[in-house]
Design brief:
alpha+beta; 893 residues; 8 domains; Rossmann fold
Length: 893
């Protein structure tokens, strides 16, 4: 009996064990089959990195781990280097990899490379099918740091195995149940893509990501098998719509501004997370205005229709401003010195109503702590630290304290450079600015490292690495610096790829690129290309990015642009002392049909003039450096003694001449009528009324290096021009006119700019009586000698006293431009203007001239550039004003 029971128990146990093993096999069979359906062999990555040895150790370790985790193997590097050449063409020939696969019994072979450029790292991989070796599948991943290499390798291994085992992949992913939320917004949150391995754990994370959008009450996943793989459906249930947004208690700040800050609108989908976020945004808005004790309560209610109502109840606090900023621990620099470094400032009643002075912004305050630390480190205190700023509320005001630990101040000791030098050592050292510093300046040192790196990159060494070795001398309180350069291999441009342009033709972009396919890599050319494309005005954003290739010494250049609208209609108004009220309008297209050409129609009218212009410009005729311009015009202008009405057209060509110089050639044909002439007017003016047709050619040379057109801070503009009318080209007018000007801007201390300008011109009659009065020179006004009315400096007809202009003129300006209100873009100016105009019977006389001195304001206002000047006549003559205001303002809106 006991034996029977024992046998029965043993049989029962055996059945249990077999059932358990059977069920376990069922559970793991799909995964095992998935892993073993195809065998894939991984070769170690080819390393393109300045630190190749360390990078190879890291890459081999993570690739071996990731391959093993999938049941595959990586060939050890020592063995792989015997099978394929890592110094030759990469990837190896298909025949070589096929033989390797057949020898190891693998169905697929994966080869790739790790490329490190600066801080960026990328992985390129290709998988070769033994059955179709000439049609490899490739993939590319990149990240911002070498620490991301394990993740990139994991992604790449999964991608390669997904390709080799496509029967167990995701065939499709679609959302269902979404009515108001776009499917694309949902798919963007799903990391699993068609073609990926079916991974339930990843899909669960995707479900959480979709739910985290905040637009759904429920999200479910349905997975079903098809002939091509898994069909994945994300079924969603949307939240209700917002029917009303109610704001109460907002008085100090407009309700409209509070509503804009909240960012929740009627008919949007209710998202409780965004409601909580809106509460914080409203509080931040009040804090930005100085109301720190403001409370905001956000509530959600549902009405009878099932729609949501969102309520924000605001309890406003008192406005508190910064009353005092203090620094603790600063021994080497005064509080005033440090206040100049930070952006946070105390409340100032005379300016705070216009700016944010005195308002505490925590993000700016934390940045100020970093600014102080950087300031100290740039003054030799390389160990200086600034703790978290302390904010205290006392007596209705804010009191801020910056705790500072200065540390030791170090001078600059010896400076040297070693390594792979492509130029003479002393020549490179002469480029380093850190040698000129008494105390160690981290910013100057960083700039020097960038300067040396660029020096190498401009010669094609795109992978050059410059490291700094510091030797601290505690006894002498100095630091010796050694820059060590590893130049890497010479890089060439493989191909230039242009993306993002849906309208602008490729040739319009390529003609402004300074990088050429097959040429040596040049970082300066890449920067210049970016600048030139930005200056076109066709794009919101331009990026020119080098990208490593599978070949070690070759790089692709990707030019990505984001186009913007180039057609515009503008109207505007302005005022000047010479024209009074001025109204203007323009219709233009700066990139006609994507060709880069410009067409515009402009009109302006004022109390004294009316102008119409139709202009066509081709900046690069047949993609050359030659520009072309055609202009048709009709101008009418009222002078003191007559009215001039001109109709005509002009044609102009221009091209680079030398360095930054451009040369322009032009031809103008105009028909001019002079009317409204009194019988007592000057005979010279009456004679000009008989000169109608003006046919003239002009030649000009221009060099403009200013950093901006209005209120520049550096650079210069130099020009020289010659006009010739009549003679063999016909017309009634017969004259030659020569003009030259030179204007220079020099940056000085505290943001001030020294400006000096000189201009001169002379007109010659080719035939007596054929120089029209309106072609003579007149001075005075905003653009020549301030303090005199516009065109008031002129010789007069001895018989009638009418102003008839002169055939010779010169004028100059010396001024100091200084920041007035920096945040508003407003500058002040102290100027001294001088010059004169001479009649045909007078000689040049630089001993006798008009001279003024005064002050002015230059402001890049919301309505356009504004200039205001008051000039005082330093040598007042009979009939002249002692002083004059001059004002001009205009812009488009």
């Amino acid at each position: 009996m006991l034996s029977t029971q024992h046998n029965r128990s043993a049989y029962t146990a055996l059945v249990f064990v077999l059932c358990t093993l059977f069920l376990s096999c069922l559970a793991i069979a799909p995964q095992t089959a998935l892993a073993l359906e195809h065998s894939t062999l991984f070769l170690p990555f080819k390393i393109n990195s300045p630190d190749a040895a360390n990078t190879a150790l890291m890459a081999d370790k993570v690739l071996a781990q990731e391959a093993a985790a999938q049941g595959m193997k990586m060939v050890p590097r020592a063995q792989a280097e015997k099978l394929v050449s890592y110094n030759g063409t990469w990837p190896p020939a298909a025949a070589t990899l096929t033989r390797l696969a057949e020898t190891s019994g693998a169905d697929y072979v994966v080869v790739g490379s790790v490329n490190k450029l600066g801080s960026r790292v990328s992985v390129d991989c290709s998988i070769i099918d033994v059955l179709t070796p000439l049609a490899p599948y490739s993939a590319f991943r990149e990240a911002n740091a070498i620490e991301e290499l394990p993740r990139l390798t994991r992604d790449m291994v999964g991608t390669m195995l997904a390709y080799s085992n496509r029967s167990a992949t995701v065939a499709s992913i679609v959302p269902e149940g979404n009515v108001r939320i776009d499917s694309g917004a949902i798919l963007q949150k799903i990391s699993t893509k068609p073609g990926d391995l079916y991974d339930p754990s990843t899909l669960r994370q995707d479900l959480k990501s979709v739910f985290a959008l905040g637009y759904f009450d429920n999200v479910e996943i349905d997975a079903s098998d098809t002939e091509t793989g898994k069909k994945i459906i994300f079924r969603v249930q949307e939240k209700p719509l917002v029917s009303k947004v109610v704001i109460t208690g907002a008085e100090a700040i407009k309700e409209e501004d509070v509503r804009d800050a909240a960012g929740i609108t009627v008919n949007s989908i209710l998202n409780p997370f965004k409601v909580n976020e809106a509460v914080q945004k409203i509080k931040s808005l009040y804090k930005s205005k100085g109301y720190y004790n403001t409370g905001v309560d956000g509530r959600i209610s549902t009405n009878s229709d099932g729609k949501a109502e969102v309520h924000f109840d605001v309890t406003e606090g008192d406005k508190i401003t910064i009353e005092e900023i203090a620094f603790v621990g600063n021994k080497s620099f005064s509080a005033g010195d440090l206040e100049d470094v930070i952006q946070t400032s105390t409340h100032r009643w005379w300016i705070s109503w216009l700016t944010d002075a005195g308002v505490l912004k925590m993000d700016i305050l934390r940045q100020d702590a970093e600014r102080i630390a950087n300031f100290y480190q740039n003054e030799g205190f390389i160990e200086a630290k600034v703790a978290e700023p302390q904010v205290a509320v006392k007596e209705g005001g804010l009191y801020i304290t910056f705790p500072i630990a200065e540390g030791t101040r170090y001078k600059v000791g010896t400076v040297d450079i070693d390594g792979d030098l492509i130029r003479d050592k002393e020549e490179i050292l002469s480029e380093l600015k850190i040698k000129e510093e008494e105390y160690l300046n981290r910013q100057v040192l960083r700039n020097d490292i960038t300067r040396v790196t660029d020096m190498y990159a401009e010669k094609g060494y795109a992978f050059a690495d410059v490291s700094t070795r510091i030797n601290k001398d505690e006894e002498n309180k100095s630091i010796d610096l050694m820059l060590y350069v590893k130049k890497g291999s010479l890089a060439y441009i493989n191909r230039v790829e242009i993306t993002g342009n849906t309208r602008t033709h490729d040739n319009v972009i390529r003609r402004d690129l300074r990088v050429k396919e097959g040429g040596v890599f040049d970082s300066k050319a890449i920067r210049t290309s970016t600048q030139k494309l930005n200056r076109l005005g066709f794009f919101e954003q331009v990026t020119v990015t080098p990208k490593p290739t599978m070949v070690e010494n070759q790089m692709d250049v990707v030019v990505n642009v984001k186009e913007k609208s180039t057609g515009q209609f503008s109207i505007g108004a302005g005022y000047s002392s010479s024209e009074n009220m001025l109204f203007m309008g323009e219709i233009s297209e700066d990139n006609i049909l994507g060709t880069g050409n410009r067409l515009s129609l402009a009109a302006s009218t004022s109390a004294k003039s009316t102008k119409y212009n139709l202009t066509f410009t081709n900046p690069r005729i047949m993609d050359s450096q030659v520009s072309g311009n055609v202009n048709l015009f009709n101008w009418e202008h009222e002078y003191d003694d007559f009215t001039k009405d001109s109709t005509g057209g002009s044609f102009r060509l221009g091209h680079p001449l030398y360095e930054r110089w451009r040369i322009y050639y032009g031809y103008t044909l105009a028909n001019t009528d002079i009317t409204d002439i009194d019988s007592t007017v000057s005979e010279y003016i009456k004679r000009s009324a008989n000169i109608h047709w003006e046919s003239k050619v002009d030649l000009s040379f221009v060099r403009d290096t200013r950093d901006k057109l209005f209120s520049p801070t550096k650079g210069s503009r130099n020009s020289f021009s010659v006009e010739y009318a009549g003679g063999p080209i016909g017309g009634d007018a017969q004259f030659t006119k020569v003009e030259a000007s030179s204007s220079w801007f020099f940056p000085m201390l505290w943001g001030t700019v020294f400006h000096v300008k000189g201009a001169a011109g002379q007109a010659f009659e080719n035939e007596t009586g054929k120089l029209p009065v309106y072609e003579n020179f007149f001075l005075g006004g905003m653009n020549s000698i301030r303090g005199f009315e516009s065109a008031s400096i002129s010789p007069r007809d001895p018989a009638t006293g009418d102003k008839i202009g002169g055939d010779k003129m010169w004028y100059g300006t010396v001024s100091i431009i200084f920041p007035l209100i920096k945040d508003m873009g407003m500058d002040g100016e102290i100027f001294h203007d001088f010059g004169n105009v001479y009649d045909v019977d007078e000689d040049w006389d630089f001993g006798s001239f008009k001279k003024t001195a005064g002050v002015g304001i230059l402001w890049t206002s919301p309505l356009g550039p504004l200039r205001l000047a008051w000039g005082f006549n330093l040598d007042q003559q009979d009939g002249e004003d002692s002083s004059n205001w001059d004002f001009s303002m205009g812009g488009t809106f």
